[in-house]
Write a structure and sequence with these properties.
This protein is of the alpha+beta class. Among the domains are: 145 residues, Immunoglobulin-like, CATH 2.60.40.10; 150 residues, Immunoglobulin-like (Sandwich); 149 residues, Tetratricopeptide repeat domain (Serine Threonine Protein Phosphatase 5, Tetratricopeptide repeat, Alpha Horseshoe). Helix content is 34%, strand content 25%. Strands 7, 8, 9, 11 and 12 form a five-stranded antiparallel β-sheet that branches. Helix 5 runs antiparallel to helix 6 and helix 18 runs antiparallel to helix 19. The longest helix is centred in the first third of the chain and has 16 residues. The chain is flat.
């Protein structure tokens, strides 16, 4: 556990680069010429609304270039080859229409109706022209498309373009919006007879004018083919329908952690999150994520699962409270593979969290397959108190006894009972339904006279109920009940657990939804659970103390961080977290005393030099501060705050020449520093 929790917020940011900002949309006019052209010209017909929305929320050209790579990779029909056939064909179409349809018009070829359809659908099977020999017909082109367009479009259909009144650009024709009379030259008669006139000129064109789908019966009404209008709308939406654009939204959220190769392989999942309080009032966030698929790696004869997990808890002002990063690897025997491949996979983990209302984001990457999945939810933890309260319900098809509940902790563990919840709460009629939960602050009176009621609802109808006395259960905190599902029809249900006092008044209630599948058997996901140390391990004080520090509760944080450091003074993570709290409370001498013990590790951890330098600067030990600042710069490179502090220390020791040199270097990096400009001007004037 100690290896997976890095420590303080600053260190997490350096490792993960997770941004604490709310992304605002950029106006198209503010984009660079390259990116504006890409969005408004090159992909205007194939980009989805969500992709466009995400693109306009990106803040840098580097992020936009990254997104463009992901955009094309998402559409690559053969990702294993170096070429992107879709991208090459798309730009071939744009070049073609600009040359073919941009002549004799004020528009570029891609802006014309013919150009738009060609970019979307490609080259038609045939093109037939009307209006040159048929003097009564305006110039008209009929494009025939045939082939496999999936379920979106018919296998054979026409697209028609015409010059209105025989002049101008070719317009996309609609049987509903235009009708046959628009294809006739100088026709001002009754629109209802236009189809008869057009039939006498050209029967084939007359049929197409009423329906773009060959063979569709349309009767005598010249505007009867609503299906043609639907077809045209489907054509325009065709490129968007072919793309699962959820990747764009996830890419925006996790862009600092997801490589381009991963960006095309977003995997949907089912997930659950439960807050379960331990006996001493410590709350843990238990979660399970079941991706829809999991690729297994193979090296020689060794099969393995290799995952990278990133978690972030933050408040509603986007301030990070807690972050973690871990790598999970599991080696598998060849005989395990067939069974594993036939089941879903569930990754389960837990972590302690301070009281508050937060958001929780989780990202799981599979380096083997370049897949990634994610989960986002809200978490609310109330301050611990002695008041009567109840945990969320955990539903599980299986419960096992945990042989070592005091020496380790596992996700969804209740004392010595280990539950194995399904992330989607699906059950088969053959399954048992185990309901497990906790009651905190149970009084003696409620234990002796209270009632627990289990009620099952199908929509609003109660289909089953069971009442038991609270004292029927041996454990006074953890409660487990088992139900058979054999008599339940395949439907969605809600189970409600109510706690009633001696007057039969409901004082606590929790609900959970579940579904009984019509399938006689559901293969259960196999789970990979992280194992945590027992509750007396100092890592818990370290984690909670770091969370309190990040949330601004410095004094509370110090109590926990001092406890963890005293129990393990050799831990650099514990030392850094505690000295961060001391620095925040201006106890600079304590920072110097503790971090001086870790100087041999300073070249591996930039924060040691940073805190030592800043603390000695505040203590007025400028020569010592200069030493640590110079060590930082030589080991880790330029840092604006370090440069400014170094210049200040030189100034305080009377070395104005060095101060001026350092401050000018800082100003060259960030010219907008107005206060620094004043310092430099004053120093130069004095010189």
């Amino acid at each position: 556990m100690k290896r997976q929790h890095i420590g303080t917020f600053i260190l997490f940011l350096m490792l993960l680069g997770w941004q604490d900002n709310i992304l605002a949309s950029v106006k198209i006019a503010d984009l660079s010429t390259k990116h504006k052209k890409w969005l408004t010209e090159e992909v205007v017909y194939i980009v989805t609304n969500k992709e466009k929305e995400v693109f306009l929320q990106l803040e840098t050209d580097r992020d936009r270039d990254f997104f463009i790579k992901a955009f094309w990779k998402q559409r690559d029909p053969l990702p294993a080859t170096p070429e992107n056939e879709f991208q090459e064909e798309h730009y071939r179409r744009i070049n073609y229409v600009n040359q073919k349809f941009g002549q004799g018009t004020t528009k570029k070829g891609w802006q014309t109706d013919r150009g738009k359809i060609y970019v979307i659908l490609g080259k038609p099977a045939t093109i037939e022209n009307f209006g040159t020999l048929d003097s009564n017909v305006v110039p008209t082109e009929v494009w025939l498309y045939q082939g496999d367009f999936g379920s979106s479009l018919p296998s054979r259909f026409h697209v028609v373009f015409f010059q209105e009144e025989g002049i101008g650009d070719y317009i996309l024709y609609s049987p509903v919006r235009h009708g046959p009379r628009k294809l006739l030259e100088s026709y001002d008669g009754d629109p209802n007879y236009a189809i008869d006139v057009l039939s006498r000129v050209n029967v084939e064109l007359a049929n197409i004018s009423r329906s773009l789908v060959p063979g569709e019966p349309v009767g005598r009404n010249p505007r009867a083919s609503i299906s043609s209008e639907i077809l045209l709308n489907k054509i325009l939406a065709f490129p968007q329908k072919k793309i699962e654009d959820l990747y764009a939204e996830k890419l925006l959220k996790f862009k600092s952690l997801v490589e381009v190769d991963h960006s095309i392989n977003y995997v949907n999942n089912n997930a659950i999150v439960k807050i379960i309080e331990d006996k001493d009032g410590l709350c843990f966030v238990h979660y399970a994520v079941e991706p829809n698929k999991l690729s297994i790696g193979k090296h020689g004869e060794i099969y393995f699962i290799n995952l990278e997990v990133y978690g972030r808890v933050f408040d509603f002002q986007e301030k990070t409270i807690y972050q973690f990063q871990k790598k999970v690897r599991l080696d598998l025997a060849p005989e395990q593979i067939p069974e594993i491949k036939s089941k879903l996979f569930s990754f389960q983990d837990m972590f302690p969290l301070i009281p508050g209302h937060f958001k929780f984001d989780l990202l799981i990457k599979n380096p083997v397959s370049k897949e990634f999945t994610s989960m986002e939810t809200e978490i609310r933890i109330s301050p611990s108190s002695a008041s009567l309260r109840m945990s969320p319900l955990v539903l599980s098809p299986n419960i096992e006894k945990n042989s070592s509940p005091k020496t380790t902790k596992r996700p969804f563990q209740f004392g010595d009972l280990q539950s194995f919840p399904s992330a989607n709460n699906y059950f088969s009629p053959r399954d048992k339904l185990f309901i497990i939960f906790k009651i905190y602050g149970l009084t003696q009176a409620l234990f002796e006279n209270g009632i627990i009621e289990f009620s099952f609802f199908n929509e609003d109808k109660k289909v089953h109920a069971l009442r038991k006395n609270v004292n029927d259960y041996q454990d006074r905190e953890t409660f487990l009940e088992e139900f058979s599902l054999a008599e339940y029809a395949p439907e969605r249900y809600t189970v409600q657990v109510s706690i009633l006092d001696e007057t039969k008044e409901e004082i606590l209630v929790e609900r959970e939804n579940f579904l009984i599948s019509p399938a006689a058997y559901l293969p259960r996901a196999w789970s990979l659970s992280e194992i945590l140390p027992p509750l007396d391990d100092p890592s818990y004080s370290h984690i909670l103390g770091s969370q309190l520090l990040n949330s601004g509760e410095t004094e509370k944080a110090k109590v926990l961080l001092e406890d963890s450091y005293q129990k393990n003074p050799a831990s650099l993570d514990f030392g850094l977290a505690l000295t961060s709290a001391y620095f925040a409370s201006q106890e600079y001498q304590k920072v110097d005393e503790i971090l001086s013990r870790f100087l041999e590790k300073a070249k591996e951890e930039s924060k040691i030099y940073f805190l030592l330098g800043k603390s000695n600067e505040h203590l007025g030990k400028y020569d010592k501060a200069i030493y640590f600042f110079k060590k930082y710069l030589s080991s880790f490179g330029t840092h604006l705050e370090i440069l400014n502090s170094l210049g200040e220390c030189y100034f305080q020791t009377g070395n104005r020449e060095e101060a001026l040199s350092v401050w000018k270097k800082s100003l060259g990096i960030a010219p907008e520093q107005e206060e620094l400009k004043k310092k430099i001007a004053a120093l130069e004037k004095r010189e």
